Amino acid sequence: MLKGKEIVLGVTGGIAVYKAVELLRLLVKAGANVHVVMTKSATEFVTPLTFQTLSRNPVHLELFNLISEEKIGHIALADRADLYIIAPATANCIGKLANGIADDLLTTTVMATRAPVLIAPAMNVNMYRNSIYRENEARLKAHGYLFVAPACGMLACGYEGEGKLQAPEVIFEEAVAALTPKRLAGERILVTAGPTLEEIDPVRYISNHSSGKMGYAIARQARLRGAEVTLVTGPSCLTPPLGVEVVRVQSAQEMRDAVQGCLPRIDVVIKAAAVADYRPKTRAGEKVKKSQESLCIELEKNPDILAELGAHKGERILVGFAAETQDLVRNAGAKLKAKNLDLVVANDVSQEGAGFNVDTNIAKFLFSDGRIEELPMMGKEELAGVILDNVETLRGEKRGAAKG
Question: How far apart are CA 8 and CA 178, in angstroms?
Answer without folding.
Answer: 14
